Backbone:
């Protein structure tokens, strides 16, 4: 398969804990195009960050290992999470997301600038279907499929407490449905369509990977990209409404 190799630091299924999974994913080199791009960006840098050392590796999820709510984006931004090493950290998309999370009581502060800045998430974890920054923010289908086992393992490990998922954008929504179906939840057929404010409920199958898994409510929101937030397609109030609904579904409010 073009652009994809079999090189991985560790198979996702071998990770027994969220901490172990987070450590393992940072060493993944499975997708040649993504490895080359993330490392090129880390070398060349943006002028505004020329004095900073870029992360330049796959980005793990961020948030507690017993999270009841998971937010799923698309992929790290080249000069955001690919620079800082934390999801939605150090870019304007993250500014919008964390401000909303703080307003609805899911984050300790409204800004996310760098790991160690004091930010904590409450019952919430942020992750992505693709863990490396892709050129033009567009991973290929092969790269999405190659990265999928990481998200599968993450949701399996979170299953005992997982009660709600917010998918940011159509890519995140489709990925969530694929992963839930692959990891033991009964996704409705035909699969629910994405839209801002979309809502679906999935129940665990009898053969679920974790016997204590429960029903999961999935919520859709337009992505917090600058294209959406600058044009008003996604407003702070719209995002807060979705996050509030998801927080209630996860018993976090």
Residues:
């Amino acid at each position: 398969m073009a652009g994809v190799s079999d090189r991985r630091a560790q198979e996702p299924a071998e990770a027994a804990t969220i901490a172990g999974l987070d450590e393992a994913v940072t060493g993944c080199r499975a997708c040649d195009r993504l490895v080359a791009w993330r490392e090129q960006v880390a070398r060349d840098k943006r002028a505004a960050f020329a004095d900073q050392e870029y992360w330049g590796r796959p980005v793990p999820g961020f948030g507690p290992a017993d999270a009841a709510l998971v937010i799923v984006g698309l992929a790290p931004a080249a000069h955001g999470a690919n620079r800082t090493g934390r999801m939605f950290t150090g870019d304007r998309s993250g500014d919008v997301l964390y401000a909303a999370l703080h307003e609805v009581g899911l984050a300790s502060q409204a800004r996310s600038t760098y790991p160690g800045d004091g930010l904590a998430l409450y019952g919430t974890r942020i992750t992505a279907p693709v863990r490396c920054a892709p050129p033009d923010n567009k991973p290929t289908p092969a790269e999405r499929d190659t990265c999928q086992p990481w998200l599968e393992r993450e949701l399996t490990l979170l299953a005992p407490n997982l009660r709600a998922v917010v998918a940011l954008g159509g890519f995140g929504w489709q990925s969530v449905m694929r992963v839930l179906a692959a990891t033991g939840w009964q996704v409705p057929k035909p699969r629910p369509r994405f839209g801002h404010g979309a809502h679906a409920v999935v129940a665990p199958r009898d053969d679920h990977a974790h016997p204590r898994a429960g029903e999961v409510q999935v919520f859709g929101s337009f992505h917090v990209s600058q294209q959406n937030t600058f044009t008003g397609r996604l407003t702070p109030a719209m995002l807060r409404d979705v996050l509030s609904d998801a927080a209630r579904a996860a018993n976090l409010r």
